[in-house]
Amino acid sequence: MLDVKQAAQTASTYFADLYAQQGVSDVRLEEVEITEDGKFWLITLSFPDPDPPPATFTSLMGATGPSRKYKIFKVDAATGDVKSMKIR
């Protein structure tokens, strides 16, 4: 069974492979959670938004700093297979 570090590394590697052509950097581990039945790890990663909203929009919303996008990876705790990747 994968521990939390292995599950996070699996999700990070999967993300890096999928987005290698886009040159995404500054990927951050945001959240980790195991499902109640213990079968899956839910790993949330974030990365800079390649298409951020206009500066006027972010100033109106009170946002500070660059915006980020989030992906949730469902990793099989027994096999390490990534079962899904979703937008959060």
Structural description of this entry:
The chain starts with a helix and ends with a strand. The protein contains two helices and four strands. It has a four-stranded antiparallel beta sheet with strand order 1-2-3-4, with helices on one face. By secondary structure, it is α+β, with helices and mostly antiparallel strands. The longest helix is centred in the N-terminal third of the chain and has 15 residues, at 4-18.
Topology:
Layout: H1 4-18, E1 28-34, E2 40-48, H2 55-61, E3 68-76, E4 82-87
Antiparallel strand pairs: 1-2, 2-3, 3-4
List descriptors.
25% helix, alpha+beta, four-stranded antiparallel beta sheet, 2 helices, elongated, 88 residues
Helical percent range? 25-40%
Biggest sheet, spatial arrangement of strands: 1-2-3-4
Shape annotation? elongated
Sheet with most strands = 4 strands, antiparallel
Count of DSSP E strands?
Answer: 4
The whole-angstrom Rg is 15 Å
The count of helical stretches stands at: 2
Distance between the termini: 26 Å
- In round numbers, the mean pLDDT is 90
Structural class: alpha+beta
Q: pLDDT below 50 for ≥5 consecutive residues: which ranges?
A: none
| H/E series | HEEHEE
| Percentage of residues in DSSP E strands | 35-45%
Provide a brief overview of the structure:
With 88 residues, the chain is α+β, with helices and mostly antiparallel strands. The chain has two helices and four strands; from the N terminus they run H-E-E-H-E-E.
